[in-house]
Structure formats: structure tokens, C-alpha cells
Description:
single chain, 300 residues, alpha+beta, Structural Genomics Hypothetical 15.5 Kd Protein In mrcA-pckA Intergenic Region, Chain A, Pseudouridine synthase, four-stranded antiparallel β-sheet, 7 helices, 15 strands, 28% strand
Amino acid sequence: MNHRETLIISHEDAGMRLDKVLARHYCGSYSRAYFQSLIQDNQITVNGTVVKKRIASKVGDQIDICFVSPPELDLIPEDIPLNILFEDEDLLVVNKPAGMVVHPAPGNWSGTFVNALLHHTNQLPASPQKRPGIVHRLDKDTTGVMVAAKTAVALERLMNMFARREVYKEYWAICLGNPGKGEVTLPIGRHPVHRQRMAIREDGGRSATTRYATQAFHAPFSLIHIVPTTGRTHQIRVHMQHCGHPILGDALYGNMSMNQKYKIERQLLHAKRLGFKHPMTGNMMEISADLPQDMHIFVQ
Length: 300
């Protein structure tokens, strides 16, 4: 269903291309290509005037957006290489690269992990939400270990494990400054103004806990070991921002001047390790993925 939203340009967004501003504000929900198509179809205005995507935004500009729902598309298998860490007849564990969306959504109907899964195996459990086999998500630009189910039974059991917090999740990140060691136990909910962002919400937020510890510090950055015991949307990114140590490259919650200075265009967050019981055998599994190169250069 189509709907409209209004966005006011802040100092942080000033000077950026309109399509890039919108992609940053709605990161994780809509792609830059989606907003480019809306601009081309005259579904976005600036101060009441139809514009081009190349226009530079100014402080105080009023952006009116008509979100148009694209037609439903059939899922199509695509020959996209997967970095497989483990596979048997019940599940598949991969090292997800940056830039890969997990499942089809507006602006990303192809090139997703689901499209790659469908090409890799034809035995995925059906899903009415175009998410066959998907157990959990990683943000588009977050890398690392992700598990998918190849049977309906494995899918149900794995999803229950995640819901009951029986899965060990370990992340590594490059953060600004040196946060040391600590724990954040603050609830997270939808931002009251920017609806595609999350925020600390004492009123109506869902409980969230994140433990973190500095592993190495090379001013002005730290390599941080992070263990979230809950799985809220953007939890780690929101909690590290709240601590005053945002993740380098984070376009939504990070320090834009530092992101631009070091030319980092994705949050340097990596799902390093998953620990869980095999859904069918009950054997304990622990699967890890090496840090990607764009994070290695900050810890050498």
C-alpha cells in the first residue's frame, strides 16, 4: 500500500545528493536505487517542487516522499557465489558479504541472499513472506556468519532457538574512541520522528542488552568484541552510539565527518561467531568467519 512521509533536511544531511540522503535515513528498508526510481517517477518533491536526484540538499528543505509499492514479483534463483562455512542436509551457514540484502524487499527484489539460496538448493521450506529458509537477519552492510534452514523442521527449531536466546552471537566492530569494557541495558524502539531509525526508548521500547570489550586500541579507533544477548533491530549500532563510541562507517548512527574523512561507506560491523545446537542432531556447533579486509586495515 502506498503511503507518504515528510523529511526535513538537517545540518548533518546538508550538501548531500537527495537520493543518498534518503537512502541513509531509510537504511535497511529501502535502497538508493529505489529512491532514484521514485525521483524519476516524480514521487518525491523538495519544497513542493519536483527535482532530480543530483540536487544537493539544503538545511530546512522539506522532502515529501510518496512510497509506491512495487508489484509483487516471483522469487527467482540467481547464480550468486556464496562463501559457505558449513552445510549438510538440514542447514547452511555462510559468511555474508557487505552489500548483500538478506531477503527481497522494495528496492532490492533481486541479488539477495534468498535469490542465491534458491539457486544453491531447491529444497528450501516455503515462506509466504518471500523469506524461504531465513532464520535471522544481518543488515545489508554487516558482514559475517549467518545460518539458513533447508527444511521446515530445521527452520522452526532454529527460529525457536533464536527466540529463546539459546544462540550465542559474537560480533566485532571498529568503533570511534576506546569504550573499554561494559554493558548497555537500555530498551530500543522505533525513533519517534525518523521512523526508519531505532532509538533508546524508555517509553515503549523493547528490552535490549549488549556487552562489549575493547580488544585493541589504535587512536582514534578500537577493535571491539560485542555480545548481544537480545536481537533488536540495529541494537549494536544504537547502543554503541549511545555509549559515545559509534561504529565507524555507520551512515545512520555514526559520525559523518569521520566516515567521510576515512572514506568508509559501510558500518564496520562483523558477525564473527555463532554458537548453537544443531537443530536435528543436538550437537553443539560453533562457526566463525574471519574479519573482512576493510576491518583488518584498522587493526594491523
